[in-house]
Amino acid sequence: MATTRPAFEFVDLFAGLGGFHVALDDLNGRVVFAAEWEPALNALYKKNYGVHPWTDINALETDRDIEREIPNHDVLTAGFPCQPFSKAGDQMGFADTLQGTLFFKVHQILRVKRPRRFILENVPNILKHDGGRTQRKIIEMLEALDYSVEVEHFSPHEFGIPQVRDRAYFVGSLDGLDKFEWPTKHKDPTDITSVLRQDVPPARSIPEQTLHAIDMWGDFLRRSPASLKMPSFPIWSMEFGATYPYEDETPPGIWDRRPIWGLRQMGVKGSFGQSLECSVGEQKERIPSHANRDSDYQFPRWKRTFIRQNREFYQHNRSWIDPWLDQWKPEEMQSSFQKMEWNAQGEDRNIDNFVLQIRASGLRIKRPTTSPSLIAFTQTQVPILGSNLTGERRYITPAECAELQSLGDIHLPTSDLDAYKALGNAVNARVVKAIAEVLLEGLANSNSSSTADPEPIVGMRTSTSNKWRDARQECAPITKPPSIGSVLVAGRSA
């Protein structure tokens, strides 16, 4: 805990691993209230920062609850849950009554406690969500509380950190923002090796099938002629040799039109040139997953373009692709291993020079200048470092991911998977600090709520419900928000 008078006092909502805390502590701020619903992260916050967070913020149902439990403060920070606004989710927005309405809880706290500044963080898609109406709704509600509000988006790589991770930031002030300036975005080169730690034991071994896929695509790159510019579109090897219709008709449309014969006796072939002279059930297994969805009677333009580009690429390069297909037999591998995204145009085609990531869209190969955006990783999506970067192929470690989030040597969840998830949900502390340095100027020299080092006041009520996960509803336009008491659970997930 600080032993000198703080410059300001702040609350840290949906705190997670404490990225906001790290940033504002560096600016001589002191936390007086934190909230984090996930038990393991709640306990880690206490271990890392000496503060026991409140658990379920929705237990603060009424204005009186908020007035009683949350101390006065100068700055409110919140990375309110992002799944309702993320392209990776259902984009239900405020219609997601389990997470989407948590912004209204932040708004309620701002209305009751009136901190002089706030910083809110979310995914950049929130600026475009619902045709821009979500952003306008948020700004209108904040301005109705007499806050001046500005919005901008930043990525850590614009601050010298080797990670591309664009996030939207809303800042507000009761004193106006005439003197506020957003930090300058830098274009200096970054290098992921700056955060790598040598001689670290692997967090876990890379599965054999994943290593096989890396070797397979590494050989694909080696075989490709040096004079050939590698495609910028995703390479879908299942389209090599395929001739099924995709422009005017689609396989699902033909199966509906010809339920007995399907694609038989049409002179067309399926994935990797497989015969379609078989039953409709077998045909469905021999058509790529991106082309065999029921009722998919017309493919979108982007999909038709990718199919056409891959078939043309194959026809122009069969002389070296066919021997590659014969050796590696990608048709025997799972779909995500049959695809490759080359994001390193112009670089030497040695796959071990790069940062690799297995995604549903394929094996993504990225320059070692930056890491892929840290997200709440599944176990298969953790970035893999090529052997020329670290001496052996290995997953990037949680400690290295903490460096990518500017969190230093804080304690992390003991489970690697839990650590990756928490780090993917964290806010980048260096980006927040750069924004806050100008926004918070003057708080220490005015009518700050800070006093001389009282103990932080924090809540410890137990969460009433943590059942928000995986809600699935259709996205609806913004309507009048539901009552705050109807929201089930608070939780940070950005």
TrEMBL record:
InterPro entries: C5-MTase, C5_DNA_meth_AS, C5_MeTfrase, SAM-dependent_MTases_sf
Entry keyword Nuclease: no
Stretches for region Disordered: 446-469
Keywords from the UniProt entry: Methyltransferase, Restriction system, S-adenosyl-L-methionine, Transferase
Gene3D superfamilies in alphabetical order: DNA Methylase, subunit A, domain 2 (3.90.120.10), Vaccinia Virus protein VP39 (3.40.50.150)
Enzyme Commission no: 2.1.1.37
Entry's transmembrane regions: none
Catalysed transformations (reactions): a 2'-deoxycytidine in DNA + S-adenosyl-L-methionine = a 5-methyl-2'-deoxycytidine in DNA + S-adenosyl-L-homocysteine + H(+)
Active site as annotated: C82
Pfam family, one: DNA_methylase
PROSITE patterns tied to this protein: C5_MTASE_1, SAM_MT_C5
UniProt KW S-adenosyl-L-methionine keyword: yes
NCBIfam families reported in the protein's UniProt record: dcm
Record-stated family: Belongs to the class I-like SAM-binding methyltransferase superfamily. C5-methyltransferase family.
Protein name per its UniProtKB record: Cytosine-specific methyltransferase
Source organism: Brevibacterium pityocampae
Higher taxonomy: Bacteria, Bacillati, Actinomycetota, Actinomycetes, Micrococcales
